[in-house]
Amino acid sequence: MARQAFVFGFFQFIVYSVAVSLTSRYRFNPLEHLGGISPYFESHSPPGSPLPPQGCTPARAAYLSRHAAIYSNDFDYEEYIQPFIMKWQNKTAIDWSKIPTLSFLAGWTAPISEAEQELLTRMGKLEVTQLAISLSFRYPNLTLPRRVWTSSAERTAKSAQAFVRGLELDENTINVVTIDESKEAGANSLTPYKSCPAYSSSRGSDQSATFLDIFTKPIVARLNALAPSFAFTPKDIYGMMELCGYESVIRGSSPFCDPDLFTPDEWLGWEYTADIMYHYNVGYGNDVAGVIGLPWLSATSDLLLNDTGDVHKQDLYVSFTHREFPPVVLVAMGLFNNSDPGGRPGSINETMPLDHINHQRAWKSSHILPFLGHIAFERLHCKGSYGFSDGDYYRVLVNNAPQQLPNCGGGPGTSCPRSGFESYIRDRETLFNGYSEKCGVKYGNSTDTLSIYTDPNVGNGAAVGKRELAD
Fold this sequence. Notes:
The chain is of the alpha/beta class and 471 residues long.
């Protein structure tokens, strides 16, 4: 009998294995491997459900979001895209129509002009409006916020305005509060890296350039064999691959994404090059990253834990910023750390080698900061959740994927109880406190805290009118 059961079970395994191999299909989407140029997508990593755990209802939430899709970042345009476009425009003697994989360049037109840099695209406005609608579905029991916060750049402000228009039921019921992107605001802004002298926007460039030369070497050789007179360079290749992302959020698609032009392994090389840069710039490879991100983490935990009668209290807090800010907050939180499961800082640069890809790394910028990438904190009120005591629990989602906080578990799903969450926050504050000192601040009136959500002096912002979104 046991032998029969074994044979039957083995037969089932074989049938299942064959069925999987017959029905599985390899799919690769380069738009999900373009780091900070990726259109918004949800990696579902880990693949836990974003729905509240059984018996739990969201009682308060806070979101920190990057702005939506833009025509191009100024550095990307000036360093890679514009030089490639100008070079292509000047090589008029090349008959692209006769060159395999590059024939589209015969009739292609550039999707970006110098004047359009940093501007929000139509797709970006649509996506941020969809985010607002999705949050209204996710939190039907939360009252709509009175205010939404944004840094002062046009692309972040326009993102906030589009979000408000998608969220509010009646016009002029939600104000947008604009926070100046000052270089002397200390930690009290949505761009605190700009106020930190120890932070450099160019950090990570040298390291990423090392791997750029490695991964583009065979591509350069291949394309130069097809079009020798163009004399492709590593920067040309990088710019062409960037165009896959930017042109897609401008026109809806791009011939630079064609799988016959660049292979999946080549796209993974591009992604790793970007990951190296972000690792050293705003990740665990930068000693001040967690220091810059901590004030938002501390302020947000106070909003979720504190039940005082503050007139400024809301059920939902939403803020818009640039791509540099969410990653430093993730470092302060201890998430996506390649080496230490406790999320503590350390010597982890060896986990990002410059001569080959670490495919097992946790730090993948495509999963962390696509356009509109966001971090969400939720306070859940749980009652009748089997196996757990009634009470408040706290959890984090990154781009809709629930994340387990280091040393903060014991609740339904990836959540942890109030006492565990408070202990977790104290631990992170011990690791990364002292913004002004560690940033080497020399200007006066610096601060180590973020108070924009509760300080009445910040003001109530301004209502969003239709005309502001029509331009």
